[in-house]
Amino acid sequence: MKTINRVITAVLFAFIAISCTQESDVIDETALLVHNHSNLKEQSPNPTLDTSIYGLYHGVVASASSLSRGQIWINVANDSRYVAYIELVGGTRFSLDLDPSSIPTSANIPQIYEFEGVDGHFILDLSDQNTPEISEITLSNETYFGRVVKSLSSNRASIVTATFSEIGNPDFSGTFNLIADGTIVDPNGNNGEGITSLLITMDGDAYEDFDFEMFNASTCLGVSSYYPTLSSFGVADFIVSDYQTFSFAGGMAKWNMSYDPTGTGYMNYFLCDTATTGTFTWTSADGTQYRVGEIVMD
Fold first, then answer.
1. What are the extents of the domains in the chain?
2. CA-to-CA distance for 175 and 68, rounded, in angstroms?
3. Which of 55, 65, 101, 244 has its CA 20 to 30 A from that of 46?
4. What do you get for the CA distance between the two ends of the chain, in Å?
């Protein structure tokens, strides 16, 4: 009887050991998958694909119901792979792969690609090569909006994410996301990348702006007609973008969002003065509501 018990005990220990090993393998495989997909952040666009729908895409994702936001990188055969990586502010990460139904064949080269992951999903529509569209984004059962652009080998896209909120009223708040797609190169002679789009999300709606005003930055920067830029002076996260306007949520906003990561911090280059955050004012279309708030970058 003791011999039988020893055999049963040995089998149980072996089963537990195998189970633990399998669980460890799953965890290791998931971690490796995230690590491999995160390499998209550093991958260089293939110069032979600059005029093709294939290549690297970069953009932002922002929740429809919260202030959750982050960046997305998508590889569409830039190196023969079809994978995507999303990193939210706070560190949550998602790795996604092409759905089998979207895999290209010699007889079928799709323009719409569906990506799936353990907790994520989105569709990338490349029907219009100049205007890639991302839709049906869900991350951990939460709906997101997004905007992506193609990164070029000569000039990769730059992204800045932020939040905005009325002072003293967090109910009037949302995400604030700037993109420079790399097509407006050094517009002011200081190696910056011209901003090409703004995505704001608030209360379940998304608002986009593609028109930006030049402003007078002669006192601070010696440029009287300054085009708003990201990566200004060739420095990541160096933003020069003041005296801008944008209509959203039934009103008109005026906003300033400049930041010098080399030491000064927030600035207003129109006034040539330091600041504590980015700022905005918002006036309703009928003029009955007026709000003052802050924009804080991530």
1. 1-154, 155-298
2. 8
3. 101
4. 66
